[in-house]
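Late entry, 3,4-dihydroxyphenylalanine complex.
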Amino acid sequence: MGIEELEEKLVAIEKKALEAIEATDSSEALESVRQQFQGKKSVLDEVMRRLKELSQDERPRLGQKANVVKCAIESSLKERKNFLYRQELNTRLSSETIDVTLPGLGRKLGHTHPLTQITSEIITIFYGMGFSVVEGPEIETDYYNFDALNTPLDHPARDSQDTFYTDTSDQVLLRSQTSTVQIRIMERQKPPLRVLSPGRVYRNEEINARKYPLFHQVEGLLVDRDVTFGQLKGTLNEFIRLVFGKPLKTRFRPDFFPFTEPSAELDCQCPFCMGEGCRTCGQRGWLELLGCGMVDPNVLSGVGIDPEQWSGFAFGMGVERLAMLKYGINDIRHLFTSDLRFLEQF
Ligand code: DAH
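Prediction complete; structure with ligand written out below:
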């Protein structure tokens, strides 16, 4: 092929390329046009490879010409590329616009169960008085649930009517009180000690508005030198004030628990009627809140603590009961049915 023919070919290529580039309507189309006219195996490349067929002085002439065509194609490609990029970006921007004034999809946040809430409150209050939290097992032996707590063998609570025993052995049961942790902690730790133990307890009971076979207690135990009943009263009075958020009258009624001597039941002024008498307190003006007392010397010596040197007080409260009184819940079953209409109120 002679130089003239090749030159014509170059002109034709340039024309064809520029037209093809101009006709593209997307980056993809432009890319396939580019592959035809640029790089190895392109039509331009074919012409360049023919250079060697020409004479020495013809070569630079065609080389120069080819370069001009190459540059023209290059700059046309570049220009088209920018044009298409901007065009495509604009289409995307207008089709993908977000209306920032639309309301969001807002994900609803959950919260802890009212029993968890009140348990944390109880813990926080006693934490402020120097108590730390310990936990004990829910599957217990009758030793920890009864014997070590000074409970006589014929005590009715031991009956399977009241306590769930396991198939494993008649000595293995589901604990019926968190008082078990008093023993477990005193076995491990020497006094002085101040501990609080929240957890689940189980009793073989018919379900009704006030009773459920599974419930929660928080146990408190303080052992130190010369502990007095006055300190127990002061501690619990302060607890009542903080948990109900107002000062309420309290009274300590004599009661009996095998592991405390003396024992008492703590009543507080009904926070709803302030003692006037209402439905919540059954017109009595008082609410029974928890059991407490001075740790029985038998319990201390049973775990190797000398009752001549150490004394202590203990208390145990039902968490459901406190939650029901504090939040005005009239049926314990609400706390166990996971009904969001109920739970969302807390
Ligand atoms: N464990 C008792 C119960 O479940 C409650 C109780 C009473 C706990 C007196 C105590 C206490 O620590 O001193 O009925």
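The longest strand covers residues 214-224. Will revisit in the morning.
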